[in-house]
Amino acid sequence: MKKALLFLFVGGFFSAQNVEFTDINFKNAIIKAYPAVDANIDHQISFEEAKTLTSMRNLASYPLITNVKGIEAFINLTELSLTQKDFKTIDVSKNTKLTTLNLRENKLAGTLDVSSLSALKTLELNSNALVEVVLPLNGNIETLYINENKLTEIDVRTLPNLKRLFLVNNQITVLDLSQNTTLERLHIDKNKVTNLDLTNLTKLNWMSVNDNLLTNITFRNNPVLKTILAQNNNIETLNFQDGFTNGLTLINLTGNATFSKIIKDCNDTLPSNVSVPIQDNCILGTKSEILNSVKFYPNPVTDQIYFSENLEIENYQILNVEGKVVRSENALDVKSLEVSTLEKGFYLLKLQTKKGELVHRFIKN
């Protein structure tokens, strides 16, 4: 009897030392991928054995995993990659040594709390259904991917070392980047952001904010900015508070029918090598089939802008990037305008006709 009790006690003791897994597929996948973690070959993983694993990233080819309870026992992991599985929640609060966490293409929903992961440098959560991500306070995250989720807001002000931010295809309305002065790349296409202030982002060199609801973007102290992609918004102004950076080579504003001007506080001009694609032939006021059919060419232009139709022009204005009128004239009936004397750069041509007003953006070479 005593031997039986001792056996039960010892068996229960060792059982208590083993990590409990809700999904046996998860446990088996770990053992198959990392045989050394089952040191005594008992087809179990003890808490002590779990401590020996520092990286878990080779489970992609194993059967579907629907629950990852047990991951909390692997307290010495610095890298964790669990992708293309079927689990909806995960508790990583005990995995405080993680520097890389990749949970893309799962079924994560609701809130994911990674606030305890202060050592984390790379976080990838693409293609889930998360509505909230709680980030570490004063975190060390440098690269953050949360594309294709259901976020309506996210606070990245707690990430002073952030270099790359990707939040494509969410429902974010406000994004405060005031504390992210190390940011180099910004990609937030397909959200609902209405205003963006990039002041003092001194390392920002590339940004894509296509398909938002932006009406204004403010630039100040962005000395290395090269590319601005802002297609399909409601942008009225680009506000360059301290002029243009020497490295700026592309501003794409295609699909911004309301765009009117670029504002700046310095007396410099838009560099001549900058490409500025913008939606062409905007019609203001009364629309008509005639105005819709008018084409302007060439663009960029060197000497003459030609119209595909004879226009009864009442007056026209040419404005520079600051919104200043550099040329105007009344009562013309022409098929072209001479622009050879204009300096190189980006201009706005406003034509007032008897059928309505046409707006044409062009680049002077």
Give a verbal description of the structure.
There is one protein chain. With 365 residues, the protein is mainly β. It has a domain of 83 residues: Sandwich (Immunoglobulin-like). It is 9% helix and 30% strand. It has a ten-stranded parallel β-sheet with strand order 1-2-3-5-7-8-9-11-13-15, with no helix packed on it. Strands 17, 18, 19, 20, 21 and 22 form a six-stranded antiparallel β-sheet that branches. Strands 10-12-14-16 form a four-stranded parallel β-sheet, with no helix packed on it. The protein is elongated. The N terminus is likely disordered. This is T9SS C-terminal target domain-containing protein. Keywords: Leucine-rich repeat, Repeat, Signal. Pfam families: Por_Secre_tail (PF18962). GO terms for molecular function: signaling adaptor activity.
